[in-house]
Input
Amino acid sequence: MAQEKSMAAIPEFLSKAELLKQGAEARVYRARFLGRPTIVKERFRKQYRHPLLDEKLTHRRTVQEVRSVLRCRRAGISVPVVYFVDYTSHSIFLEEIVGSSTVRDHIVSSPPSARCEGLEPLAERVGQVLARMHDEDVIHGDLTTSNMLLRCGPEDEVSELFLIDFGLSYISALPEDKGVDLYVLEKAFLSTHPHTEALFQRLLKSYAAASKKSSAVIKKLEEVRLRGRKRSMVG
Amino acid sequence: MHLTHELELFPGHKVTQMLFKEVKNAAELRQCAVEGKINGALINPTMLVNPFQVLVAANKAVNSQNNGKMKTRSLYSEIIFNLSPTNNISEAFKRFGCSDGDDSVLVVLIHNEDESQLLADLTARVSGRQVPVEEVSSLTDHAKVKKLYKVTQEEEKSGTLLDAVVCRMAAKDVM
Ligand SMILES: Nc1ncnc2c1ncn2[C@@H]1O[C@H](COP(=O)(O)OP(=O)(O)OP(=O)(O)O)[C@@H](O)[C@H]1O
Ligand SMILES: [Mg+2]
Output
């Protein structure tokens, strides 16, 4: 009894927290934890999956997220600090990047006229950070402009770019995996932000300039694009 | 001077930290802890960067206790274990536990009731000078902390030492 009651500590806590996002696999909350502004990501079970398989997959996502965050931090890439992980409720407690907005919102809210030139420094920054991440052999697995946060520094200062949402990430040195990672971003980027082809080219250019192993990756990206096009012509 | 924080996940569970300098009876205190006369964790403050680090360890200890997943025998040894970046228990005690010759000690208590009596009992046992817990940052042995937690130079450019330490504590089960 006592055990059952205490095991409910985290669900109980989350029931009083502010729900930010209800996703397909996870709920994201905002709360105070150990006195600090915190984001809690709770992965819940999917009813249609076999319970054992579900438990395994959910556990793996949580573990992957924690490992990749640490690997990125070690390489000096800005990612939220992990405060606490509970593998029973599959919850990760992360530093809240206070005063940030997603790169997506940032692009959407900028006036269309500025959408290309004004955003170039941001696109270049994204390219550099992804280059650093890939040089560490971290494949993000879900690169979108919603999974990047921008924290604006005080007036005039450059804003800091954070990567988040590493649940689908894994470690690989293969140019193919890195190329696919960029392809996923390209698709998401161009469909979320129409008419930004030139901007995305800037991103790739700065990626290519910053990554030590970029030529093989860009080549793979081109191959994957072709394959994607062929598939859509057939299907 | 002490710092008390009620754990948000475990309402009613409070964590109190007290810091003492110029301690003359570390060996005796350690003996008291072993015998259960001191119901608390005695920590070597030179391995601490910030009181937040202790809160992270204490929260995790209470959670493990509730889930029946403690790696050590008591809540207090679990706090010391959680501070360490590795899963080696004796190593954790050597690095983070108080040693006989230490001249400073940070005491952590976990309690439900009001802390005033507990504090009085503890202060009576320590022959040393109590200072504000925040002063722990002035005792930190930065070189040792960086080496033990394997903090990289790259990492220090983009985040604080506390960030680096806390991340490793939180991630150690899957490393
Ligand atoms: N550390 C953080 N600080 C501030 N905001 C955050 C943080 N983490 C997440 N968010 C906000 O919550 C949103 C969702 O977070 P996240 O991308 O991690 O979850 P998700 O997309 O639901 O996960 P999944 O893709 O695994 O289902 C983000 O787009 C961002 O707006
Ligand atoms: Mg996301």
In short: The mean pLDDT of chain B is 96. DSSP finds nine helices and five strands in chain B. Chain B touches chain A at residues 5, 7-10, 52, 55-56, 59-60, 63, 66-68, 152, 154-155, 157-159, 163-164, 166-168, 170-171, 173-175 (CB under 8 Å).
